[in-house]
């Protein structure tokens, strides 16, 4: 019995010694980019890097398989990776094309699976895939080159300046750049895993992301895999460029229709809901500051004041529109207060373009819908929404005070409110609902009744 106990104690001691001789490896966080690069990929990257900081990860591995996407979001991901104090490694599993090549180049090391590829970063249109003008290519060439230059060479070879050759990164964009033995000057560069190894653009070939984890963190790495939550996906969807444009349409359109028909109605709630969906994810993401949201609200207040309290369209209206646009634009860029030194010029341009185009489209649609819906077009695709049947007196229909209103034609009175075009006028001792003949009429101006339409009198300014 003593021998059995002694044997067990010796075995336990041997196991303990072996465990101490083989300590656990370092902490590794793994996250994926396996979709089109856009707002959702940006949210996933931000959350993964945040978790890496909170858990004290020693290494971060980006498991990548993407054909590219929006350059603005790819640039944001690139910037986040370059500024991350924890080493970030890209494992290219099949594809890192276009914007994906930019993100991979920003990583501290690149590993590729056999049969994978990287490159083809020419900027193309998102609608038809056509190559964009040279100014876009010039910017992409510069950002690819500067990203490669962000990683200096620290080896013994004193002839090398950078970990990855900036000319290779530039050749991903520009067909005029040739790489000896790989591609001539008439094609955009795409590298296979073997070619990337030959050009020192890739630090190794691995068959799986787990193999990369063992390579960078030791034989027994502590692996944490970031899995996006439903909230992360919703937030990513709300931050998408196309949805932001649609929300701006609803914000501007809701304000327009609410002004056209004063009172708390559906249009106002639509505008408020769209504004909440627009600003909430930006505020949570740290892009929209309190003062930028307040600036937007001040713009709305000034426009409302201009419409209802200040005749004409002057300083208040112009200032209100400027504040509204500024609030929408500034909430999309990562400025620090009034400092824009850290904000890339293309981010500001993209935000301004998104807001401006959305407002232009929104105003155009509002005018079109107002003409077709509010005025009841008699033909066309919107005619179904207009009442076209006539209600004859012999069929039992009686107009409310029709004769009384028609008797007011050519009567004169005074506008008791501004007419834009709707409002109220006083004729004799009675106040009537009225609409102008299309012109703006200030409160207190003399008016003359010209006709009756839809139960309201139509007036024009009295000469």
Could you explain how this protein is built, in words?
- With 463 residues, the chain is α/β, with parallel strands linked by helices.
- Helix content is 46%, strand content 16%.
- It folds into three domains: 18-230, 2-enoyl-CoA Hydratase, Chain A, domain 1; 240-374, no CATH class; 400-461, OB fold (Dihydrolipoamide Acetyltransferase, E2P) (Beta Barrel).
- The strands form two sheets. Strands 1, 2, 3, 4, 5, 6, 7 and 8 form an eight-stranded mixed beta sheet that branches.
- A hairpin with a 2-residue loop joins strand 12 (446-453) and strand 13.
- Helix 2 runs parallel beside helix 3 (71-82).
- Total number of beta strands: 13
The separation of the N and C termini measures 123 Å
Helix count from the secondary structure assignment: 15
Low-confidence stretches: 15-22, 396-400
- Structural class, by secondary structure, is alpha/beta
User: What's the CATH first level of the largest domain?
Assistant: Alpha Beta
Strand content: 15-25%
Main sheet? 8 strands, mixed
CATH topology of the largest domain: 2-enoyl-CoA Hydratase, Chain A, domain 1
Order of helical and strand elements: HEHEHEHEEHHEHEHEHHHHHHHEEEEE
Tally of separate domains: 3
Average pLDDT: 81
Share of helix, binned: 40-55%
Q: How would you describe the shape?
A: elongated
* Radius of gyration, taken over Cα atoms and rounded to an integer in Å: 33 Å
